[in-house]
Specification:
homodimer, 421 residues, mainly beta, Sulfite Oxidase, Chain A, domain 2, 5-stranded mixed beta sheet, 5-stranded antiparallel beta sheet, 12% helix, globular
């Protein structure tokens, strides 16, 4: 992903062909080239081949100049931190940059003391310790997690902000390789009674976060997750155990999971009545809007990048759908009048983010870039007008409308929404 | 992945069925269960639901009790650190636990000052800065990297050690999502001259690590990598730029890459003549043994785990091949006389690690566990005898023979090799 400085520093014009990309003006003579390599290191730096390097270490560190950080909303008990998506590449989010959202802070829980009670409409109510759970057959899957409030900060603003970064807008999205035991395995273990149709999942944080999830869903593909990107869950991700519901709004993937109750109806907890419901334009309220619909966002170019010159640039972004695989991402460079298929980076995994990339030639004029994703159900990411019509302005959840970026003649990129699409 | 403590603590017998696994003895009464959840926290701990948790942070940290570490060979200039594979889950290696191997320490290189010279048999010798390289069309791929010396430490020992961890044995293996620009794109950019057949890749560390790689290979799937698991390369992985040759011995993926010279023959550098060659049993030497053949290793159970009781356990491990996809992993629980197919965790990606898992019932008697991988070329991971016959005892590279673990009646697991297979 080009960094802001990269884009600002680059002073070269580009030409693309279908067989590759040619950077006109990049060429220096071989004599120049060899001189550059052989030249003396400038004052204050050393030729790295002339000095012994740093020794091996038990744990790696980032380069001093590379210190990506999560964006913190507020230092409150109920708060969040957002992944720096525009600074990242590929699909995997490093665990220490995975977004976090909690309603009463991060509890401290000892692995060996943590217990999960599974009870309710089951034949054999059971308490599982972590040592029990990790013995069950294990699965690992690369999948996204997204807070349903992602994007809500700009959706219904009277005066839309334009100086919005990808991180601030959609940073409540991250992707990991999750490892755990299928909920289905554990429910088969305890024996679900006839008539059961939901579960209640309860966390052991100070908010006692509690959500209802359809039994069909958890039997299909939910995990009791204890691993993330190779390592144990991080505390802010629910250490030592979380529910992970692929493709569902993040809040249902209850962290610090201590109890699953099998029920014959949703429990209507505080966290799914006073919150995580969607007031619609017609005065009704949508509840249990659990699946995250298809969405995409261009991460480059985005605010606050500045394109230094016209010519060929690779538009880059992420697309994902809670309903399965992304099948298509299109990019528009004219505010949505015409669209071109972006290239998708395989493998395209279900309920995971996919990188899309598209070469576009910036003319130097005002330009509005948009992306829209289609998933394997045929669902197409809506325009913001379509979303406003369907859902009204009173909700801040599930805002998966197309995002727009405006490139000004100066090369400065700003966020756009209503007036741009 | 069960931890040693998990295995030691667990005191429960297991029964498996084809439709699931039943843990006999796990069941407690619902009254017990509810009492457990509701009981007072013991002295010295607090009920996490009664106290506000820790606040959000810009950068995450691991739980205090979860501190995986790389194993350092020696604090020398030419040294290595090994990934704690038995402590990890899934395929992705966290970047700070990715193995490292360098011959003169880790150089400090400034991103904005780093340059790559591409010259030799090319039409337009060119110096690329990082800002140039990140503008080219980008690709991301999940692939393994393995040092060809992996496993060499035990291969030709007269007295084979048995107290060997997976980390010590095979920890020079890690898997990441690598992001960069295809070498092919850059070579098309500079124009390869007719007759060219190899490249020389040179690093800007104090060892000036230099390796020859066939042109066909780098045109096929090699990357100029600048990203790893979403973030910029770490310094010990070549920041800001490394060559990444999927499936090739790790040393060819030259780090801190500063020069590519296109040639019509291998350069026969110090690093591919005095090292990284394989003396064979017949007095000849194998040079440019570049591809990592198919291999697998059981990571659980392995030394120093202790199985606390007989019954059903999930054998877990990793398999990989430098020639493409793994198609089959078999596990033997009788020293190689009979084999059963393990389950492979999809998606199975080419030149990447794949998790395999296999339920096996430990009888409580002395047991020898083995795994063997087959790749899409039909190649089957050899026994150590086959490797000794083919390669002799004088080499410590490319030791991809089957690894064995012996479970003693006490449940203690130790490493095995010759006498076990």
């Amino acid at each position: 992903m080009p960094r802001e400085e990269d884009a600002k520093l680059s002073r070269r014009a580009w030409v693309a062909t279908t067989s590759g990309v040619i950077a006109a003006g990049l060429v220096k003579t071989q004599a120049d080239a060899i001189r550059l390599v052989a030249q003396e290191a400038p004052e204050g730096t050393q030729d790295p081949t002339r000095v012994p390097g740093r020794m091996v270490s038990e744990i790696g560190t980032r380069a001093p100049a590379e210190q990506p950080r999560r964006l913190i909303r507020a230092p409150a008990l109920s708060s969040s931190s957002r992944s720096p998506l525009a600074d990242l590449m590929g699909t995997i989010t490093p665990a220490d940059l995975h977004f976090e959202r909690h309603h009463a802070g991060i509890p401290e829980i000892a692995y060996d003391r943590h217990e999960l009670l599974v009870h309710g409409m089951v034949e054999r109510p059971t308490v599982f310790r972590m040592a029990d759970l990790v013995r069950f057959p294990q699965v690992s899957r690369i999948q996204f997690l997204e807070c349903s409030g992602n994007g809500g900060g700009v959706y219904n603003r009277e005066r839309m902000p334009t100086e919005v970064t990808v991180q601030r807008l959609d940073g409540l999205l991250s992707t990991s390789e999750w490892t755990g035991v299928p909920v289905a395995t554990i429910l088969r273990e305890v024996g679900v009674r006839p008539g059961a149709s939901w579960i209640l999942a309860e966390g052991s944080d100070a908010a006692v976060m509690s959500r209802s999830v359809p039994l069909d869903k958890v039997m299909d593909d939910s995990l009791l997750a204890y691993g993330q990107n190779g390592e144990r869950l991080r505390p802010e991700q629910g250490y030592p155990l979380r529910l992970f519901n692929p493709g569902y709004e993040g809040n249902t993937s209850v962290k610090w999971l201590r109890r699953i109750e099998v029920t014959d109806r949703p429990t209507h907890t505080r966290d799914e009545t006073s919150r995580y419901t969607d007031p619609l334009g017609d005065g009704t309220v949508r509840q249990f809007s659990l699946v995250m619909d298809a969405k995409s966002i261009i991460t480059f170019p985005s605010y606050p990048y500045v394109l230094p010159d016209r010519g060929w640039w690779e538009v880059r972004g992420l697309a994902w759908s809670g309903r399965g695989r992304i099948t298509r991402v299109e990019v528009s460079a004219d505010g949505g009048r015409s669209w071109a298929d972006a290239e998708l980076q395989g493998p395209i995994l279900p309920k995971s983010t996919v990188c899309f990339r598209h070469l576009f030639e910036w003319s130097g004029r005002d330009t509005i870039l948009l992306s829209r994703a289609t998933d394997e159900t045929g669902y197409v990411q809506p325009t913001v007008q379509q979303l406003w019509e369907a859902r009204g302005l009173r909700t801040s959840y599930h805002q998966n409308h197309q995002r727009a970026w405006k490139i000004a003649r100066t090369g400065e990129v700003t966020f756009g929404l209503g007036e741009l699409v």
